[in-house]
Amino acid sequence: MVKDTVAKERDSEWAEAKQRCRLSADDVKMAKALGIQPRSLIKNIPDPRERWKAPVRVWVRDLYFKRFGTLIGAEQKPSRRPERPAELPVAHIEEEPWSPIEIDLLGAPERSIGEEAADDNRFRAQRHEQFRAAATYVTAALARLEEVQKIVLFGSVAAPLRKEPARFHKFALVGIESWHDCKDVDLAVWTSSVGMLKALQKARSRALADLYRDTGIGVAHHQVDIFLMAPGTDRYLGRLCTYGECPKGKPDCHVPGCGAAPFLKQHEDFVLDPGSFAAGKAIVLFDRTAELSAPTPSGDRVAE
């Protein structure tokens, strides 16, 4: 009798979490597989003031994919997508020609490795596209600040999608390759002043909130890394901090030079590779010195 009561209470908690967090049945399965409790899901619902936070369903899917390398069920796509700027082409993705290799685990038929690899590659390609959309939106917001002189996208998101050896052993065993992994957006921002970094933080947060409102794409503010550069040079100054106050009192706030200017973060032993901005490795999204106007969220630019 007690067990029945506990079970009913637990079912009620999951039903409440599913409704309040707007989860699908597949999202609930992934949360349970991760060991996340209903109360934890509800506690992670973003506050209206935390517009930079991704919805709970996006958080659950990202955690599940990082742990298991795939998702349960068909992935939902945003209802609307922004147009991509000409300098950020969307790679053409062809269907993977893998031959199905069935795995029988404990007598239960599983999806083929080919199907899992195709899902994994679709997720990677979509994340690459979503991060490029985030770069476009954030660039549009930052470029409205007169101190911002230039913005360059570099790193894994700037690179066209390319195949590399699979990170997951079961894929590598049968010779399957994966699209390269994109963990975050790297933006280099040349600014004439480091005294307005709080304004940069707010602009980044507003841009990501607009991105979610317009497209349903959830990208958290800490997934957009802003590297601050001295005007007219490639001299690295530090990164835009993700904390809401400076100093925050965290262990990483004690790195020498961190917070010398409010919200100018330093990382111990970090050196920015000057080759990061080489031709073919980076994309100039905004350049005030070239007399280009700020891009719109769709990525369009107004000619000189």
In short:
This protein has 304 residues and is of the alpha+beta class.
Strand order of the largest sheet: 9-8-7-6-3-10
The tally of beta strands, per DSSP, is: 10
- Quick one: biggest sheet? 6 strands, mixed
Distance between the termini: 76 Å
Percent helix, as a range, is: 25-40%
SSE order, as H and E? HHHHEEHEEHEEHEEEE
**What is the residue-mean pLDDT, rounded to a whole number?**
79
Q: What radius of gyration results from the CA coordinates?
A: 22 Å
Question: How are the elements arranged and paired?
Answer:
Elements (H helix, E strand, L loop, with lengths): L1 H19 L4 H10 L3 H6 L12 H13 L35 E2 L2 E2 L3 H30 L5 E7 L8 E3 L3 H5 L3 E3 L5 E7 L5 H19 L8 E6 L6 E5 L23 E2 L16 E6 L17
Parallel strand pairs: 6-7
Antiparallel strand pairs: 1-2, 3-6, 3-10, 4-5, 7-8, 8-9
Give me some keywords for this one.
alpha+beta, six-stranded mixed beta sheet, disordered C terminus, 304 residues, two-stranded antiparallel sheet, 10 strands, 7 helices
Could you please describe the fold and organization of this structure?
With 304 residues, the protein is α+β, with helices and mostly antiparallel strands. The protein contains 7 helices and 10 strands. It has helices at residues 2-20, 25-34, 38-43, 56-68, 113-142, 169-173, 197-215, and strands spanning 104-105, 108-109, 148-154, 163-165, 177-179, 185-191, 224-229, 236-240, 264-265, 282-287. Helix 2 crosses helix 4 (56-68) and helix 5 packs across helix 7 (197-215).
